[in-house]
Design a protein that fits this description.
The structure is a single chain. The chain is an alpha/beta fold and about 625 residues long. It is about 55% helix and about 10% strand. A five-stranded parallel β-sheet has the order 7-10-13-4-14. It binds adenosine-5'-triphosphate and magnesium ion. Adenosine-5'-triphosphate binds next to helix 6, helix 15 and helix 19.
């Protein structure tokens, strides 16, 4: 479908959702759908809940966050269960400003943006629909029209509690436009939209000298004062501050702790009493979620200031630490790369994984338990099984440092290094070594890394490098495996023929010429040496193998490659040793012979077809493993 068609369809959909009616109609609607009168906090919570909740290993997973935030399940569960859930139930926490506190680029803004975009979409659904007094710049809750003395009766009839006073502007409109007839006041369905400044707002502090409180609470409209005669006429006031516009939804308060105090005091009253003061009017009621975010240093200096005590007690702080799972970190990079312009560059398998290992290592704290090292801890945190440890050990490790994840390398740094690798290399393909090198080089330029820290990080780079070496060797061996089973069988048959001839003191027949030849002592020894069989012990070993074969034959069982553990081990080792030579020779030879070339091509093809490489990265891998084996 072309995009114009889609735009048209979307408009039609939206058109269908429109609703307008009198307050009396709205009350009728409330009877059918009482949930539309829910508070802003409750709407946010239901949005999270409606997206689906699953449970994994005792931690709740909110589907809402799943495709954009990775590895933060525990923090998100805490955020929902300790803030959104009780706030939705009108408990006191909803009167607090929600302050997300976490290290740089740990996903705080992403989280807030998801909530905003989520609310916009949710307000298009039936469960998330929102209604407001028509024409009100603050999209005031229509239920504010019900006078205070009738609210108890209303609650009895509808089961809905009303909070807040009718705003001065709507009070005046009620008198002038509707002659005081509440039931006639027009109500409409609204759709949250940050762009249209409906129900979603963002406040970002600028220069405190030039910034006006009007940005938050609106201002006098001087052009209309003459018309309405007085500054206290609500029609001469523009209710277009961020707090006004975000009414019924949410407002993001960026850099809240950097903000001038006078702004914060407005928030104080808004959060505590649910209203704020604007111009020369009575207090204006507002119902909105206020989310701010900050980092730890800023937060610490904020609370250490006695003057901030009152505010502090009105803030709920939710830590959003870094993700500590390597596999999830990998997903973060994948996501960030997909969103960027370099998404068409080939990234060799394991590249992001190795980068993620480094990153996670910088975030973890040294385990106090003696038998766990940092690498094991990383694996355990990622849910891998590590011999000798279980889930209880993981919990214990986590308890050692409840504030883990507040420092270390941030994802943005890694992505920057990856991008610069891509740009510098000028090949549309990068691998783990490129990235590790770039991460290492970048440490020198990183402003917040001390010499001591740098040394520790260098260690983590070499740890990650060692992990990669193992991965790379395995990968190449795996790629040889197609011919492996077959080669193993051939080699074993060959060995057994020779052993038989040796033990029977007979000769072998050359398959090609038919000539009689002596058993190949060199071949047999090259296999036996792999498992440490000495010259003196070789005879006994060979006889033992033959006895085993005849025992198998008597039982009518086939003796094969897996029938003798030590022999199998010897064959395997011999093959890998040969592979090593093959890889070594083929990769280091400037002019590989036909045989070598064929093998190399096969392996490269297999790396490409089955393991996700391209020809550049596959050849780089082979060359690297070749150099490792040459050491
Ligand atoms: N746990 C995570 N899951 C998914 N993406 C993440 C995660 N942590 C960070 N990111 C990604 O890292 C980038 C930076 O994150 P974001 O801007 O949300 O961080 P922030 O906490 O607001 O940082 P700052 O303190 O610098 O404002 C984004 O692209 C974000 O998607
Ligand atoms: Mg941010």
């Amino acid at each position: 479908m072309d995009i114009l068609k889609k735009i048209e369809m979307f408009r039609e959909e939206e058109e269908k959702l429109r609703w307008e009616g009198s307050f009396a109609d709205y009350l009728q609607l409330l009877k059918e759908k009482p949930w539309v009168a829910q508070s802003a906090h409750s709407r946010v919570y239901n949005m999270l809940k409606d997206a689906g909740i699953t449970e994994e290993k005792g931690t709740k997973k909110y589907e809402f966050f799943c495709n954009q935030l990775f590895g933060l399940e525990e923090s998100l569960e805490r955020l929902v269960e300790e803030y959104f859930h009780p706030a939705a139930k009108r408990l006191d926490v909803r009167k607090r400003i929600l302050l997300l506190m976490g290290p740089v680029s740990g996903g705080k803004s992403t989280l807030v943006t998801m909530l905003k975009r989520g609310l916009e979409a949710y307000s298009l659904t039936d469960r998330g629909s929102v209604f407001a007094i028509k024409g009100c710049p603050m999209h005031e809750d229509p239920l504010h029209l019900i006078p205070h003395h009738l609210r108890k009766d209303f609650h009895e009839e509808y089961g809905i509690r009303i909070e807040g006073n009718l705003s001065p502007l709507n009070m005046m409109r009620l008198e002038q436009e509707y002659g005081g007839r509440i039931e006639d006041v027009l109500v409409e369905r609204i759709f949250f939209s940050e762009d249209k400044r409906t129900g979603i707002g963002t406040f970002s502090p600028s220069d405190p000298k030039s910034q006006d409180i009007a940005d938050l609470t609106g201002s006098i409209d001087f052009s209309t004062i003459a018309e309405f005669g007085s500054e206290s006429d609500p029609r001469a006031y523009r209710f277009d501050g961020e707090l006004n516009k975000a009414n019924r939804g949410m407002m993001e308060f960026q850099e809240m702790l950097k903000c001038d105090e006078k702004f914060l005091w407005h928030l104080l009253s808004l959060t505590q009493e649910g209203n704020f003061k604007a111009g020369r009017f009575a207090l204006i009621s507002a119902d909105e979620l206020i989310v701010a975010h900050t980092n730890e240093t800023e937060y610490r200096s904020f609370i250490s200031n006695k003057k901030n005590e009152a505010l502090h007690s009105r803030i709920i702080v939710m830590p959003i630490p870094y993700n500590l799972k390597a596999s999830q970190e990998e997903r973060i990079y994948e996501k960030m790369i997909n969103e960027s312009d370099v998404s068409d560059v080939h990234i060799a398998p394991h590249t992001l994984k190795v980068a993620a290992m480094f990153t996670i290592l910088t975030r973890l704290k040294e385990p106090k338990k003696g038998d766990v090292d940092l690498l094991k801890k990383m694996r355990l945190y990622d849910g891998e099984s590590v011999e000798g440890f279980n889930m209880a050990d993981v919990d214990e490790l986590k308890k050692e440092y409840p504030d883990e994840g507040m420092s270390g390398i941030d994802p943005r740094y890694v992505i920057n290094r990856i991008s610069s690798t891509i740009i510098r290399k000028e090949v549309p393909s990068i691998n783990a070594l490129d990235v590790l090198r770039s991460l290492k080089d970048g440490l020198d330029q990183h402003p917040s890394i001390t010499a001591e820290l740098r040394e520790r990080y260098m260690n983590y780079i070499s740890l990650a490098r060692k992990e990669y070496d193992n991965i790379a060797k395995n990968e190449v061996q795996k790629a040889f495996v197609y011919s492996y089973e077959e080669s193993a069988k051939t080699l074993m048959d060959n060995y057994l023929d020779n052993v038989e001839a040796y033990c029977n003191k007979s000769k072998l027949r050359d398959q090609l010429t038919g000539e009689e030849i002596n058993p190949d002592e060199k071949l047999m020894r090259s296999i036996e040496e792999q498992i440490g069989i000495s010259e003196n012990a070789k005879k006994a070993f060979r006889e033992e193998v033959l006895i085993r074969i005849s025992a198998f034959a008597r039982k009518g069982k086939r003796f094969d490659y897996n029938s003798h553990d030590r022999l199998r081990e010897a064959i395997q080792k011999k093959l890998f040793a040969d592979l090593k030579d093959v890889v070594k020779i083929t990769t280091s030879s400037k002019t590989p012979d036909e045989q070598q070339l064929k093998k190399i091509n096969n392996v490269v093809a297999r790396l490409i077809d089955e393991h996700g490489y391209n020809s550049t990265s596959a050849n780089e891998l082979l060359r690297y493993v070749g150099s490792l084996l040459n050491r």
